[in-house]
User: Fold asparaginase from Tolypocladium ophioglossoides.
Amino acid sequence: MALCIRSRSWRSPTRPGPLWTVQKQIRTPYQRAWTLKQPFSSFPRLSNHQPPAFAQYPGPISGAPLAAVTRPPKVTIYGTGGTIAGSAASAGQTTGYKSGVISVGELIKAVPELSKAADLNAKQIISVGSPDIPEGLLVHMSQQIQKELDSDTTQGVVITHGTDTIEETAFWLDLTVKTDKPIVLVGSMRPATAHSADGPMNLLCAVKLAASECARKRGVMIVLNDRICSPRFTTKTNANSLDTFKAEEQGFLGCFVDSQPVFYYPPCRPLSHHYYFNVAGWDVKQGLPDVDILFGHLGLRQELFQAAVKSDADGIVLAGMGSGCWLTDAGEAISKYIKENDFPVVASRRTPWGYVGGTKNYGLGDSCIGGGFLDPQKCRILLQLCLAADLGNGAIRAIFESNKPGSHATVPKFREFKIESTP
Assistant:
């Protein structure tokens, strides 16, 4: 029922003229409260006997117009285990803990702010320490993530992962998932039970990055310690420190300020990223080609290369000294085997950064494929995909050495290689 208050009339002591009237009409308790709170000057002055004009009010709660509802972007989180899901016996323990014992759902519940950042969909695909992630799972992850991101409703994907092999999984996904949407891998250096555990903040940053429109067309990214990293050039440099992931020569893509992503450059991809391996038709059960890594050092026995070949290795990566150097006697034996058998061998380096070409390598000559700026573990991933795509040594060399000095006059045409299971 409407409530009316009798109007009051008065003559202004400072302004001669007719009487002025203020009328207030209050229809509901909510409107009454709103009206009585208004300053006196907000009411219109009316002459006597003029039809009343009432102060504007927002209307009853049930009838007030609602602001447009903006739904948070949809982000899918895949859990794989790792330190970020680890648990230790005490809060001060940061080594010797159990990895992958906390579910991705529990990780999300531990960070309430995540629900404000995105509409989350959690999927636990495995829960192990990252050294135990099966290679066949990489194919399965690529297939599932490709389907997820092909959906119009999904903005991005986050993968919780152990830091020991996070760069390998990230590089794999960068080569096998074709999308403009962000794929973010995140881990931690301290278990979830530790004092000042870094996992919750890393996860919050990763979700906000995956939900950001600014993260599109940048490929797969790694998030740790307020850094946004490219998997092609980033590597883990310290077994214990929070600030472990580095890309000394190429640098980071961006950082986080107040858990919000800040990029240093417009969206772009590395010059050497001009190929994509379509694994949609690859049967996970068939496994990946076997590629071994040999680590160069003083006194290296040349029999190790022959042992790898005899154990049915499909290819070999050499983590050479300096810029891919190898012992002369062992290198001559390797070069001879390559020429006689057209066997794929990629020369890389054991140093954290640097370039390794395919010609005039000490001890190896021109026999090996140059790994370029890729470290041994990433050379191995790329060589596995090339072999699975049934590429010959010439085509493999062209892919690996596309970023060699003087090759940037023109950007290579983007190519797609399809990997399908043979019947």
In short: DSSP finds ten helices and 19 strands in the chain.
